TrEMBL record:
Name of this protein: Glycosyltransferase
Similarity remark: Belongs to the UDP-glycosyltransferase family.
Superkingdom assignment: Eukaryota
Enzyme class: transferase
UniProt EC number: 2.4.1.-
Naturally occurring in which organism (per UniProt): Cynara cardunculus var. scolymus (Globe artichoke)
UniProt xrefs under Pfam families: UDPGT
Keywords tagged on the record: Glycosyltransferase, Transferase
GO molecular function: quercetin 3-O-glucosyltransferase activity; quercetin 7-O-glucosyltransferase activity
C-alpha cells in the first residue's frame, strides 16, 4: 500500500538535479504518495507552472541567492549558503508538519544536499539519497574514502596508472572523477569534502535511489555489500516511453521555464533517418573559443547535418566559419534535449557525457561521441565506450586537453558508420524502457522502496 505516504524531497538548485528529482516526484504522485518539494526560491521561480506535476506541493526557502548564482559567487560559497540556509528551512518544514499533526514519513534528498540527512535524523525521520549520477560513480567515491585515497593521490599524475576497485570494470587514473586529479586543487578539496559528507550520510541510511536501472550497471549495484542500491531510473520524461507522437505534442517534460520553441524540430523533420549529429555540452561546461572552433572544424569535415546547442549566442556568431556552418547545420541556444534524442533523424550525440545526457541518450537509442569536461564524465565515457559499447571517446591532445577538429571528425565518422554500435544502442534503449514498464526492474524497485517506508 503506497497511499497516504508523505515524502519531503529536498533538491539542490541545479537544472541537472531539478529535472530528474521533479520526474521522481511525478512518479511518486502517480503512485498515490503525498509529495512536498523543497528547494531555493530562485529555483522555484524557474519552474514552469504549465509542466509542474499535478498535486505537487512546493515549500521554497531563501538560500541567500534569490536571483540565483551570480558570476561573482563561487560554487563553494553558493553550495555552502544553500546548506546553511537550507538546513534551517528544512528543520522548520519538518517541525511545522509534525506540530500540525501531519508529519512526513520520509525525506529524500538529491546529490549535493547530504546535510538534509542530518536534519531528518535530528527530527527522527528516515532519509534516502536520490543519487543523480551512476551507481558506479557512488562506488568509486565510497572506495576512495574506504582505503583507496592514498593509492589514487600518490598516482594521480600518471593518467594510465591502473585502479582496480572490487566489483567494478578495470579503470585507470584518467577514467576517475576529475575531483581526484591534480588540476583545480582548491575546488577539488571543497568537492571532495562534499563527497565525503555524502558517503558519511549513508551511515544513517545505506539505501541509494539511483538514476539508473539494474540491467545497465549490474556489477556496480552489487559491488559493495554495505550499500543498498535501488535503481529507479532512467528518470527521463514519461513521453520518452509513449512514442514520437506523444513527445511531439509535449514540452518533453522540461520542468524549467524554457524559451519559445524554435523551428529545430521542423528542421529535423526534413532530414533522413539517423543522418543528423546532435551536439550539446550541457548546462555547466564552458568551452574556450578555440575549443568551439575545433568542434566546428570537426563537424564541417564530417560533412553531416548537425543540430548544435551553443548557449552563448555571441560565441556562435564569432565562429570563423559561421556561414558554412549555417549551410550545413543548425545552431540554437537552447533545445528540448528529450525531444531531440527521440527524433529519428538523430544518428549521433556529441556530448560532454554528463549522467543525465548519458541516460537520455541510452533511452533514445542514440550512439555517442563523448568529450568529457569534468566531474564523473570521463568515467561515463569509459562505460559508454568499453562496457555498453554505444560510443567512443574523443582523444584529447596532450598538454592542454584540447579536442582537435580532426579527432572529432574521426569519432563522428566512426560512430555514424558503425552498425554494431547502433544495434548496441538499440538494445540498451529497449532494456531501459522495459525497466520502466509495469513489472520492470525499476518499477519493482520503486514499489519496494515505498513498501519499506
Amino acid at each position: 500500500m503506497t497511499g497516504h505516504r508523505k515524502i519531503l524531497i529536498v533538491a539542490y538548485p541545479a537544472q541537472g538535479l531539478l529535472n530528474p528529482s521533479l520526474r521522481f516526484a511525478k512518479r511518486l504522485l502517480n503512485m498515490g504518495v503525498d509529495v512536498t518539494y523543497s528547494t531555493s526560491l530562485s529555483a522555484i521561480r524557474c519552474i514552469d507552472e504549465k509542466t509542474t506535476p499535478h498535486g505537487l506541493t512546493f515549500s521554497p526557502f531563501s538560500d541567500g541567492h534569490d536571483s540565483g548564482q551570480q558570476p561573482d559567487t563561487t560554487l563553494q560559497q553558493f553550495v555552502s549558503d544553500f546548506a546553511t540556509n537550507g538546513a534551517s528551512a528544512v528543520a522548520e518544514i519538518l517541525s511545522f508538519a509534525t506540530a500540525a499533526g501531519q508529519p512526513f514519513d520520509h525525506l529524500v534528498y538529491t546529490t549535493v544536499a547530504p546535510w538534509a540527512a542530518l536534519v531528518a535524523d535530528a527530527h527522527g525521520i528516515q532519509s534516502t539519497v536520490l543519487w543523480c549520477q551512476s551507481a558506479t560513480a557512488m562506488d568509486i567515491y565510497y572506495y576512495y574514502f574506504d582505503g583507496y585515497q592514498g593509492l589514487i593521490s600518490s598516482n594521480n599524475n600518471n593518467p594510465i596508472f591502473p585502479i582496480n576497485f572490487p566489483g567494478l570494470p578495470p579503470l585507470i587514473i584518467a577514467d576517475l572523477p576529475s575531483f581526484f586529479l591534480p588540476s583545480n586543487a582548491n575546488e577539488n578539496h571543497f568537492v571532495i569534502s562534499l563527497l565525503k559528507d555524502h558517503v558519511d550520510a549513508l551511515k544513517l541510511s545505506p539505501t541509494i535511489l539511483v538514476n539508473s536501472f539494474n540491467e545497465l550497471e549490474p556489477e556496480s549495484i552489487r559491488a559493495i555489500e554495505k550499500l543498498v542500491f535501488l535503481p529507479i531510473g532512467p528518470l527521463v520524461p514519461s513521453e520518452f516511453l509513449d512514442g514520437k507522437e506523444s513527445l511531439n505534442n509535449s514540452s518533453g517534460e522540461d520542468f524549467i521555464k524554457i524559451p519559445a520553441e524554435d523551428d529545430y524540430i521542423q528542421w529535423l523533420n526534413t532530414k533522413p533517418k539517423s543522418s543528423v549529429v546532435y551536439v550539446s555540452f550541457g548546462t555547466l561546461a564552458t568551452l574556450s573559443m578555440d575549443q568551439i572552433e575545433e568542434v566546428a572544424s570537426g563537424q564541417l569535415e564530417c560533412r553531416r547535418p548537425f543540430l548544435w546547442v551553443i548557449r552563448d549566442s555571441l560565441s556562435a556568431e564569432r565562429l570563423s566559419k559561421i556561414d558554412l556552418l549555417k549551410k550545413q547545420g543548425m545552431i540554437v541556444n537552447w533545445c528540448s534535449q528529450a525531444k531531440v534524442l527521440c527524433d529519428e533523424a538523430i544518428g549521433c550525440f556529441l556530448t560532454h557525457g554528463g549522467w543525465n545526457s548519458t541516460v537520455e541518450a541510452v533511452v533514445g537509442g542514440v550512439p555517442m561521441v563523448v568529450f568529457p569536461q569534468w566531474a564523473d564524465q570521463a568515467k561515463n565515457g569509459k562505460m559508454i565506450e568499453d562496457v555498453w559499447r554505444t560510443g567512443v571517446r574523443v582523444r584529447k591532445r596532450e598538454g592542454d586537453g584540447m579536442g582537435e577538429g580532426r579527432e572529432i571528425e574521426r569519432c563522428l565518422k566512426m560512430v555514424m558508420g558503425d552498425e554494431k554500435m547502433k544495434r548496441n544502442a538499440e538494445k540498451w534503449r529497449n532494456l531501459a524502457r522495459e525497466a520502466l514498464n509495469n513489472g520492470g526492474s525499476s518499477t519493482i524497485n520503486l514499489q519496494a522502496f515505498l513498501d519499506d517506508l
